[in-house]
């Protein structure tokens, strides 16, 4: 067992500020912000809040598009709980402070010869925020980030710290892996890591019909498959990542990486989106230009460098998880709806897959899953109709919304979509009966 550091213990400092999330669509003015330096300080904050009738919301990097992290009285930032605490190189179990970003964690794991077995496509989130909202990547035989969690430390509103594992409070561990920050404040997470590995990446342009025809075969033959469909065109960008060893990797040159991932994917794409916002009539022709500019590339690198990429272009997003067997039909219906509409959609639709898991509020609980994610530029006049269309299509097959992305479902509907919904509600009643950790959004999705 390697002990890498201990959490800082200096007292919390209160400040006041205006909070906004990454996308800028959620804002709260005049927020009291506390930044505790230890789990004990987090617990003390919650105890004082409970005694004075105040509500506290923890926040990570603010990458959720919903108001799940919106503070009422106090916002709790865990930025100072930002380090790997213990690493067992024999078992691969690594314990990390809740405020550690995935980016920082990935770098430390690489230095230890370890890696997370799967990741999403951005790494700016904190570990606690990512697991609490059900962050996932892609891979037909791989689960989301929460499936890698083997232990948690929770600060509870009564001022106690609860250690959860397979043998200690396993019911709380099962639910709190995707707990929405409603069961307690996650202060530390233990993750089952794997030996470091590489990914051989193949990225190529194709047509939508061709990709849909071979999609199931591609998912069966390739570890991690996803694709992006460009609305108003028949063009698709595919990504196929195959797991390889670390002995013979061939990363992109710095120049090529800058050209593709910085200039084209962020600077140029951002300019295209901005032009479409200023002159909506340009969106459809620019979509065709963007799709025609897709270039093929092939390289290999350490897994976290391939899974995650920089995202600087702001957008708003809805993502629905649907049963894998219905997933491509859901996409086809969405494509047809876009074709019939007069919408101007500047941002591609993302499609990914995941294996079934056993986390009560995971979008993949109990079923192999396909994810359809739709995005719009901030302030898009088409957002409401576009998002409502996906929501209606997904509803026909029991679709479940990503907890950190925009949707309209309430607790009554979500209860029907999640067979184990009541398990989580019962735990919430037990651990936070006075809703110290509540806000309006949690009341909407979990009930009062």
Strand-pairing-aware structural class: alpha+beta
- The percentage helix is 25-40%
Mean pLDDT across all amino acids: 93
How does the major sheet shape up?
A: 8 strands, antiparallel
User: What percentage of amino acids are in beta strands?
Assistant: 25-35%
Residue runs with pLDDT of under 50 for 5 or more positions: 5-10
For the largest beta sheet, what order do the strands appear in spatially?
Answer: 16-13-15-14-18-19-17-20
Number of strands: 20
Rounded to the nearest angstrom, the distance between the terminal CA atoms is 43 Å
* Overall 3D shape: globular
Number of alpha- plus pi-helical segments: 13
Radius of gyration: 21 Å
Kindly describe this structure:
This protein is of the alpha+beta class. The chain is built from 13 helices and 20 strands. The strands form four sheets. An eight-stranded antiparallel beta sheet has the order 16-13-15-14-18-19-17-20, with helices on both faces. The chain has a six-stranded antiparallel beta sheet with strand order 1-6-7-11-9-10. Strand 2 and strand 3 form a beta hairpin.
Keywords for this entry:
alpha+beta; 8-stranded antiparallel sheet; 448 residues; 20 strands; globular; 6-stranded antiparallel sheet
Tell me briefly what this model is.
The chain contains 13 helices and 20 strands. It has 448 residues and is an alpha+beta fold.
List the helices and strands and how they pair.
Layout: E1 2-3, E2 14-20, E3 27-34, H1 39-52, E4 56-59, E5 74-77, E6 84-87, E7 93-97, H2 102-111, E8 114-115, H3 127-132, E9 149-155, E10 161-164, H4 170-176, E11 185-192, E12 194-195, E13 198-207, H5 208-221, E14 224-229, E15 235-244, H6 254-278, H7 283-292, E16 297-302, H8 303-307, E17 316-323, H9 324-340, E18 349-354, E19 369-376, H10 383-395, E20 400-401, H11 411-417, H12 421-431, H13 440-446
Parallel strand pairs: 3-5, 4-5
Antiparallel strand pairs: 1-6, 2-3, 6-7, 7-11, 8-12, 9-10, 9-11, 13-15, 13-16, 14-15, 14-18, 17-19, 17-20, 18-19
């Amino acid at each position: 067992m390697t002990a890498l550091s201990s959490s800082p213990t200096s007292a919390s400092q209160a400040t006041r500020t205006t909070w906004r999330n990454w996308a800028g669509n959620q804002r709260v003015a005049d927020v009291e912000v506390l930044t505790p330096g230890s789990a004990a300080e987090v617990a003390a904050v919650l105890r004082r809040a409970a005694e004075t009738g105040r509500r506290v919301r923890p926040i990570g990097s603010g990458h959720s598009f919903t108001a799940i992290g919106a503070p009422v009285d106090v916002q709790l930032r865990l930025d100072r709980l930002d380090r790997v605490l213990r690493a067992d190189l024999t078992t691969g179990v690594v314990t990390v402070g809740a405020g550690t970003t995935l980016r920082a964690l990935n770098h430390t794991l690489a230095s230890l010869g370890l890696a997370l077995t799967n990741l999403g496509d951005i790494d700016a989130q904190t570990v606690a925020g990512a697991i609490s909202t059900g962050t996932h990547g892609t891979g037909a035989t791989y689960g989301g980030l929460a499936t890698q969690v083997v232990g948690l430390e929770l600060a509870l509103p009564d001022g106690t710290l609860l250690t959860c594992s397979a043998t200690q409070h396993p019911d709380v561990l099962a639910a709190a892996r995707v707990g929405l920050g409603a069961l307690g404040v996650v202060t530390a997470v233990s993750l089952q890591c794997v030996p470091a590995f590489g990914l051989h990446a193949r990225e190529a342009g194709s047509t939508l019909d061709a990709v849909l025809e071979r999609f199931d075969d591609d998912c069966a033959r390739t570890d991690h498959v996803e694709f992006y469909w460009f609305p108003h065109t028949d063009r698709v960008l595919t990504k196929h990542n195959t797991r390889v060893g670390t002995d013979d990797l061939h990363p992109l040159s710095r120049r090529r990486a800058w050209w593709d991932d910085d200039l084209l994917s962020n600077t140029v794409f951002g300019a295209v989106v901005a032009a479409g916002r200023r002159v909506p009539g340009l969106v459809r022709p620019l979509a065709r230009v963007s799709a025609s500019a897709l270039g093929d590339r092939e390289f290999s690198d350490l897994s976290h460098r391939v899974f995650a990429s920089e995202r600087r272009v702001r957008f708003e997003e809805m993502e629905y998880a649907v049963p894998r067997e219905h997933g491509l039909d859901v996409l086809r219906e969405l494509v047809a709806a876009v074709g019939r509409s007069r919408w101007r959609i500047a941002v591609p639709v993302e499609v990914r897959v995941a294996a079934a898991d056993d986390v009560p509020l995971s979008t993949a609980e109990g079923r192999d899953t396909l994810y359809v994610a739709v995005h719009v530029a901030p302030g898009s006049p088409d957002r409401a109709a576009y998002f409502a269309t996906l929501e209606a299509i997904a509803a026909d097959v029991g679709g479940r919304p990503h907890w950190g992305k925009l949707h309209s479902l309430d607790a009554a509907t979500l209860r029907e979509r999640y067979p184990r919904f009541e398990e989580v509600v019962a735990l919430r009643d037990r651990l936070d009966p006075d809703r110290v950790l509540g806000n309006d959004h949690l009341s909407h999705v979990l009930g009062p």
